[in-house]
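This week, study the protein below.
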Amino acid sequence: MIKIIKKNNRGPAQYRRHQSSGAGFVILFAVTLSAILLSIALGVSSIALKEIKFGTSAKDTDEAFFAADSGIECAVFNDKSTGNSFTSFGSGDIQCLGNTIRLAGSYPVWSFILSGLGSQAQGCAQVTVDKSKALVVVVSKGYNNGGDIPEFCTQGLNSIERQIELKY
């Protein structure tokens, strides 16, 4: 009888050492790196979106303010230069931006709408002139949009209002 001896230096299967290829670490590293890059990209895009909204809001606010300012200027110009626009014997019409505007109301409180204002001609102003007190009070409410239809100042869902009040 011949005896064959097999030499196995590794030992039993449960005690064998496996040589690590690092594949598990590479996957973990790739997932972690992807998550970090994704969070950075989401943060940057969130900031960019907020900046766009802020820029649009600032532009709309300026449009509304300048519409209100145009309304004040129109009322004061017609009251001071002609002297008979806002009186009990006035004509009931004023001139603004090259247009004739019909006044609503009568002595001592008048109102009018100035439309077609702003960079895209969508702004408008609702102006009230009150001479019932010792000081003349002019209130102008400007809107960034709402002036599509002349003689109307109907605000939309995203309208911004700015009000200026002048006493003299």
